[in-house]
Amino acid sequence: MDFHPVSCDRCGTEVLVHKSSFHQTSVQWNGTAAQNCELLQSAASEAKRLDPEAHSCPALRASIERAVVERRLAVPEDDDERTIPGLGSPGEAATERRDD
Predict the structure, then answer these.
(1) Does the predicted model carry a pTM greater than 0.90?
(2) Which segments of 1-100 does DSSP mark as H helices, in order?
(3) In this structure, is the dihedral angle defined by the CA atoms of residues 55, 57, 58 and 63, taken in order, positive or negative?
(4) What does the domain layout of the chain look like in residue ranges?
(5) Average confidence score pLDDT of the chain
(6) Which residues does the annotated region (Disordered) include (predicted)?
(7) For tag attachment on the chain, is the N or C end more exposed, with fewer CB atoms within 10 Å?
């Protein structure tokens, strides 16, 4: 299994990521990354340790999705469901959405 570094667009925390399919992602956090992620630390400090969402970061998840769309992170070709809500498919250019 090949893991590739991905940095969070929000805080710069770097983790190692492997995509087994478009919908399955493995993330390896090291101690430094877990300590540097503000959202992860916030969830932990609010005693949400038993909540599954407390063990993930929505900003990092969005950064991983963007890395797939921008083809910086590979997804196996045999996966048919290749659309990321709000970002499109890997073949489309990633664009910023603004809600004015």
Answers:
(1) no
(2) 31-36, 38-45, 58-69
(3) negative
(4) 4-69
(5) 76
(6) 73-100
(7) C
